[in-house]
Amino acid sequence: MEKLLLFTPGPVNVAKNVKEAICKEDICHREAEFDALLQSVENKLLQLFEIKTISDYRAVVITGSGTAANESMMSSIIGDQNILILSNGEFGERLHKISKIHNKNTFLLDFAWGEKLDLEKVEAYLQEHDIDIVAMVHHETSSGMLNPLEKIGALSKENGAMLIVDCVSSTGAEVINMEKCHISFCSSSSSKAVCSYSGLSFVVGRIDEFEKLKDMPVKSTYLNLYNFYNFIKTYSQTPNTPAVPLFFALEQTLINILDKGIYNYHAGLRDRASILRQGMLKLGLEFLIDEKDMCCVLTTVKIPFHIDVTAFRQKLRKKSIIIYEGKGCFKDKVFQVGNIGELSFDDIQFFLKSLKEILRSFGPVNIKNVTSINFPRSILTSVNENVERKNFASQYKT
Ligand SMILES: *Cc1c(COP(=O)(O)O)cnc(C)c1O
């Protein structure tokens, strides 16, 4: 099979040594070999998060994609306390959806997809309501927006709320300072900027907060976060059968990142994003959001109105290039180009050259003359209006 170039925000093209790691020796997950492997992975995850007081934190690893880590947080941390979800896109809405299943006191403060979180509104909400836990997405992958952890962390702390964060698509790409941002727990996965295979996710959290989960009502068996914590603490194992080969791959990718140095790794991603963005702007394309608000994982590009998305993607596919389509209210309006994984600068140049050819094949060469689709607020808010609101959250809105 031809090699596909995955210009997606995960899955990614994994490194050769990660591919090799997945076929290491057969071990039993109830023996010392796995205990050591899990310890090694946990240790490296805590290093990846650059945690200074490492004795205050632990990381548990769950067999399951990023959603498993999110659902383990949502089902294990909240109990019957009041949780406020901040949302400005698809993944914020998903957090809300998961929370509603497990927690009757779930409230939502939502903003239009692709819009920034309004800090004044967040502050006012927290001052006026009795919120115990705030949950948010760091990198809202649907738009590419990086949300402000430090500011929300400070607001949460001032108002006596704990902060939990979905860092699935930002881990490995952006600084996540759990200590400085007052984050109690955050979730992530193996297959995005961490650049391994999909199938493992993890939750990093403060030990004192993990300990408190012991007294929380159990709402899930498999995804019980306290159980994961208790098992790793007591046995250096996982409660159920883990996907052992994926742990070998995760360990290897973490070694790759730490060997390179976290700062250099982030800088490498920023360089690639920057080359892609400059190249696409030169072709006359426009982005959905301001470059300064973007994460360095992907770029969300408006589709010029004369271009049919399906045909466009097929033409790229013929060149072995895979990109992402927009979802929800962005469907048929944007495409997304990731820059994580094993993509070389030659691959990026090849992508830009192919993109130029393909854009030309759709008509006017100077596509700057063609108006791109704008996103009137009304379109965006109308989608969000459909999101179910609850109790005082809806009263607040009116
Ligand atoms: C990818 C992603 C997830 C998890 O999705 P999975 O399909 O379970 O891997 C959660 N949150 C964000 C922000 C993501 O980008």
Could you explain how this protein is built, in words?
The chain has 398 residues and is of the alpha/beta class. The protein folds into two domains: 5-10 and 261-395, Aspartate Aminotransferase, domain 1 (Alpha-Beta Complex); 16-259, Type I PLP-dependent aspartate aminotransferase-like (Major domain) (Aspartate Aminotransferase, domain 2), CATH 3.40.640. The protein is 41% helix and 15% strand. It is built from 14 helices and 14 strands. The chain has helices spanning 16-21, 32-48, 66-76, 90-102, 119-128, 149-158, 207-212, 225-235, 244-260, 262-282, 309-318, 345-361, 377-385, 391-397; strands at 5-6, 57-63, 83-87, 106-110, 133-137, 139-140, 145-146, 162-166, 183-189, 200-206, 298-302, 321-322, 324-325, 334-338. The strands form four sheets. It has a seven-stranded mixed β-sheet, with helices on both faces. A three-stranded antiparallel β-sheet has the order 11-14-13, covered by helices on one side. A two-stranded parallel sheet has the order 1-12. α4 (90-102) links the parallel β3 and β4. The longest helix is centred in the C-terminal third of the chain and has 21 residues, at 262-282. The chain starts with a strand and ends with a helix. The protein binds pyridoxal-5'-phosphate (PLP). Pyridoxal-5'-phosphate (PLP) is lined by residues 65-67, 70, 91, 137, 141, 166, 168-169, 189.
